[in-house]
């Protein structure tokens, strides 16, 4: 599992191709909302959960997938980008994991992601 204590900030850029890494893990009715990539690692947001991908080893063939279901979200915070500061942040507190923070660069679907989290965590 990804060590979110030591790697709490992911600097992510939108990368639709990264979603291919998790397609085999999706369940029936699960759809990808957006995908982001840092250097090698990435995060895929679906309509049911967040899937964090930790690419390991020299060749990158070994991967760790961490599933973070929206139903386990206690609190979340969204900081949108501004006129000159194009970065945005999503901070989520999971009931069994604690705090996870994602930092995004550039344009993204953060509002849609926040709506999906609210839909599942407030139900």
TrEMBL record:
Top-level taxonomic group: Bacteria
Domain Bacterial Pleckstrin homology residues, every copy: 14-120
Biological source species: Alteromonas halophila
The protein, known as: Bacterial Pleckstrin homology domain-containing protein
Pfam families assigned: bPH_1
CDD domains: PH-like_bacteria
């Amino acid at each position: 599992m990804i060590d979110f204590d030591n790697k709490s900030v992911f600097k992510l850029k939108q990368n639709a191709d990264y979603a291919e890494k998790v397609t085999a893990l999706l369940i029936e009715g699960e759809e990808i909302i957006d995908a982001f990539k840092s250097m090698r690692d990435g995060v895929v947001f679906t309509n049911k959960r967040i899937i964090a991908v930790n690419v390991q080893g020299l060749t990158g063939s070994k991967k760790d997938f961490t599933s973070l279901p929206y139903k386990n979200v206690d609190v979340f915070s969204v900081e949108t980008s501004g006129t000159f500061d194009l970065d945005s942040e999503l901070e989520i507190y999971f009931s069994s994991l604690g705090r996870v923070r994602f930092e995004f660069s550039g344009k993204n679907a953060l509002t849609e992601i926040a709506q999906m989290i609210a839909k599942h965590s407030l139900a």
